[in-house]
C-alpha cells in the first residue's frame, strides 16, 4: 500500500494532466488509488476540472467505468450550477447598478472565465464589491434583512432563496494596520479601473488583472489565517498567471506585493504552483521558496476547500464571540514562525473590530 505522500504525488500528477502540463500518469493506478484520487478531487473541489484530465489519459490508465460515470454525473451538476450562477451574478450586478451603485464581482464567475472550460470550475457564492458608503449600504440591507451581521469587510445579502451573496465594503484586509492601509489605498486606486467581461446572459465588471494578482493573493493568504486554503483557490491563481494580461501586469504587481509584505507568502505560493500544477518559471511572479511552499502545501492538503476537511478547525457555530476570538488567536499562532507580524496584530485587530462594531451599533 502506498504512503500518503506517494498518493498525494499521484494526485498532483493528475492535476498536471488536467491543466495540460503533463500527458499521462507515471503509473497505472489501482482501484483503491483511483478512489483516493476521486475523493481528494472532491475534497479540493476540483471534480469537474480533473475530469478533463481523466479524458486525456491513455486507455490503460483510465479509472473504473462506474467511477467515470459518477465523475461525469457530478461534473454535469457543476456545469448546471455554473449556468445558474452566471444568470444570478448578472442579475445581482444589474440590480445594484439600478440602485445607483457601481460594483465589481470578486473571484467567482469572473475567475471561471480564466479556465479552458469555465463550466468545469466548481462555483461558490457571489462576492460583490460595492463603491459606496458602508453605513448607507449596511442600512439599506438591514432594512430588509435586520438580522444580518455587519463586519468591516462584508455582510451577507440573502436577496434570493438558495443564493448566497456577500456584499463587500473592501475586497480583503490585513490584521497589520500598516500593511492594511497600504493595501486599501491600492484597492481604492484600482476601483477606478474595472475590467468588463461577458457571461452568457450579460456583462459584469471585475477587477483588472493587475489588481487580481494582488487581491487574490491576499485573499488566499487571509484564508490561511481563519479557515483554510484549498487547491481550487490555487488553480484560480494558476490560470490567472497563464493570461497574457498577467505577464504584462507582473512588474507592477510585484512592487505592490513587496510593499504590503506578501513577498514571502507569494514565493511559497509559486513553489506550490510549480509542484502541483507544473507552473513554468516565466509565469512566476517571484522566485519559488521551497521551505515556505512545503509548509503551505501541507496546510492545503490538510484543509481542503476553505478548511472543510480540516479536523483541527473548531466548530465555530457552537462557540460564543469570546470563544471564537480566543480560538482564532490560538489558531493563528501556528503561523508565527512564518508570518509573525500578522500573527502579532491578530488579537489587537479582533478587539478593535469588536469595539468598532459596538460603537457603530452593529452588535
Features:
363 residues; Beta Polymerase, domain 2; four-stranded mixed sheet; two-stranded antiparallel ribbon; 6 strands; 58% helix
Polypeptide structure, described:
The structure is a single chain. The protein has 363 residues and is α+β, with helices and mostly antiparallel strands. It has a 4-stranded mixed sheet. Strands 5-6 form a two-stranded antiparallel ribbon. A hairpin with a 2-residue loop joins strand 5 and strand 6. The mean pLDDT is 93.
Itemize the secondary structure elements and their pairings:
Elements: H1 4-19, H2 31-43, H3 47-56, H4 65-98, E1 102-106, H5 108-112, E2 126-131, H6 134-144, E3 154-156, E4 165-168, H7 177-190, E5 195-199, E6 202-206, H8 209-226, H9 231-241, H10 244-259, H11 263-277, H12 290-303, H13 321-332, H14 340-359
Parallel strand pairs: 2-4
Antiparallel strand pairs: 1-2, 3-4, 5-6
Helix pairs in contact: 1-2, 1-3, 3-4, 8-9, 8-10, 11-12, 13-14
The secondary-structure class comes to: alpha+beta
How much strand? 5-15%
Uncertain stretches of 5 or more adjacent residues: none
| Shape estimate | globular
Helix content: 55-70%
Number of helices: 14
Reported for the largest beta sheet, the result is: 4 strands, mixed
Tell me the strand order in the biggest sheet.
1-2-4-3
Say what the CATH topology of the largest domain is.
Beta Polymerase, domain 2
CATH domain class of the largest domain? Alpha Beta
Radius of gyration: 21 Å
Number of strand elements = 6
What is the CA-CA span between the terminal residues?
Answer: 53 Å
Mean pLDDT score: 93
CATH architecture of the largest domain: 2-Layer Sandwich
